[in-house]
Amino acid sequence: MKKRILILLTLLLFAAGAEAKLVVIGSGNDTRFDPSGFPPDMQKAYKLMEVKCVKCHSLERVAIALQTGIAPITGGLFDRNATRAYGIKMLRKPDSNMTKQDVKIVVPLLNFMLDEVEH
Amino acid sequence: MKAQIILILLTAGLIIPCLSATPARAIPAFARQYKTECKTCHTVFPERNEFGDAFEKNGFIWPGKVHSQPQVKTTLSPAERQKAEAMYNSGLPEQLPVSLLAQHDVTYNSDAQPNFDLDAETELEIFAAGNFRNQVGFWAEYNFEPDKTTGEIYLQLQQPYNLPFNVKLGEFKPKLSIWKANDRPSLSKFGYNGMKVGNNDFEIAGEQGAVELNGVLGSRLFVAAGVTNGPDPKSANNGKDYYGHISVRIGGTDFLGKEPEVDLDHDSVWDYLTLTIGSFGYFGSNADGVNDFYRAGLESETLYKRLRVRVSGIYGRDDDPSGTGVSVDSRFALAQVEYLIGSGLMPSMRFEFQDIDEEGITRRYIPGISYALLQNVRFAVEYLHETTPDETIRETTGRVTFVF
Q1: Reduced to 3 states, what is the DSSP secondary structure of residue B75?
Q2: Which residues of chain B neighbour A103 with C-beta distances below 8 Å?
Q3: Do A100 and B264 touch (CB under 8 A)?
Q4: CATH number of domain containing B135
Q5: Where would one find the signal peptide in this protein (chain A) (predicted)?
Q6: pLDDT at A81
Q7: Cβ distance of B36 and A73 shorter than 8 Å
Q8: Which of B262, B303, B307 is the best residue to mutate to test the A interface, defined by the most A CB atoms within 10 Å of its own CB?
């Protein structure tokens, strides 16, 4: 009986982990996320992120920030406040081609991905 | 033989750390240290953007990072962790923070011989810069060609002992103008930086042995004040020169590198507009106290998206700059407009007006264009049309610059 409970607990742990896991594929400039488990609106937002964000930097930078909670260059916290600040920073970069509408889509996606990691 | 071996070992000691450094897209020390691209701080190098300005004001410490503890990654092996900790405790950067700048000029001037000079000037400069434990910023440079001399060499103690200001000391350019001398996409330096009056060797951007206190008050006010030996330290003059600077930024990234609040639902001109206004004063004495002089300046920079407009006005008075008993007033005005196209093409146009009593009026019209092929490789062409009381100069300069 004890053994069964232990197995169940282990399975539960794995299940929770699998659900929360943000799947990162590849490394370096080829880094991508697997959005198959995202809700439809977030999948749509992810398509935008793949186009807009990689114009200037790889998604590896985003993956590190999301997974560690630390922005890899600044060393600052990467939380919900930071996602908005980064969105504005990218919006104001002269050659980013980001619009306010883009920021309004990508920032909630980053927050969603943060939640995925935190869970 | 022994000397040769020592030389080889020293050379190897210098080169090997560079070779073993983490690959980082062939850009200099700061980019290597922070693993970021040149564009984080520059538009078309060496011109800085708002964040680059904040980084420089913060003593080459990443804004927001103050007195941090070592970031030792848990994935490191025990030996690597020990090394990282030892480096931190010693205050040493993990990578040798050295960069090289090389550039070559060609010129065309129909009044010069040769008209088309493919060997106008070649420059090679090495500089080391960074910070020790996020507490002390440093800068040191040496120009191999053509000057064969050291440039700025200084330390900046970042709010030492929790004082509300930074302490900068060494040989450096006093903080006067809101722009560093090389903070421009154009080739020729801003005329006021090299303007001399009579026999007075003082230049706005001349390096001097100095001590400066500076700091950001709040987040949008920057002040600096310092004392220097003056431009002719070899004289018997025991007097010191004094200077002060104040600048304020309205809108845009503040002096601490923080982005402004932007309403994502409504458009405002302040979403992209940055206005920086600065003023300075320099009070000096040279020629063994015979020539007391001052310079006072008022400057502004307006940045809107890709457009940057700079305006500067400087007034000066020298009691007796040439030992003739005659006082001399000087005036300088500058306006420059530049526009960033794409991510690396920047045309610019500058007008300068210089009026020095006894010498007359000089006007300069300087259109130019810079192109960054890569973030660390730049091509630029500039035309100078200069009219002085004695002559008219028409010269075109082409320059290739690379840094690594």
Answers
A1: coil
A2: 264
A3: yes
A4: 2.40.160.10
A5: 1-20
A6: 86
A7: yes
A8: B262
State whether residue A100 sits within 8 Å of chain B by CB.
yes
Q: Name the domain count of chain B.
A: 1
Question: A96-105, B2-11, B142-151: lowest mean pLDDT where?
Answer: B2-11
Tell me whether residue B71 is in a domain: no
The first and second tokens of residue B402, run together, are: 């690379």
Q: Does A108 touch chain B (CB under 8 A)?
A: no
pLDDT digits (tens, 9 = 90+) for B60-110: 888 765 445 555 555 667 777 777 777 777 777 777 899 999 999 999 999
Q: How far is A4 from chain B (nearest CA, A)?
A: 35
**ipTM given for this complex:** 0.75
> For residue A7, is it within any domain?
no
Q: What residues contact residue B399 under an 8 Å CB cut-off, 6+ apart?
A: B103, B104, B105, B106, B187, B378, B379, B380, B381, B382
- Integer Cα distance of B165 and B209 in angstroms: 20
Number of structural domains in chain A: 1
Give the number of C-alpha atoms closer than 13 A to the C-alpha of residue B93, restricted to the C-beta side. 24
Residues B101, B27: Cα–Cα separation, whole Å: 10
The answer to whether position B14 is within a domain reads no
For residue B77, being part of any structural domain is answered with no
Residues B130-176 pLDDT 10s: 988 889 999 999 999 898 999 999 999 999 999 999 999 999 999 99
Domain containing A108: what range? Answer: 23-118
Q: Which domain holds residue B141?
A: 23-66+97-403
Indicate which CATH number applies to the domain containing A88.
Answer: 1.10.760.10
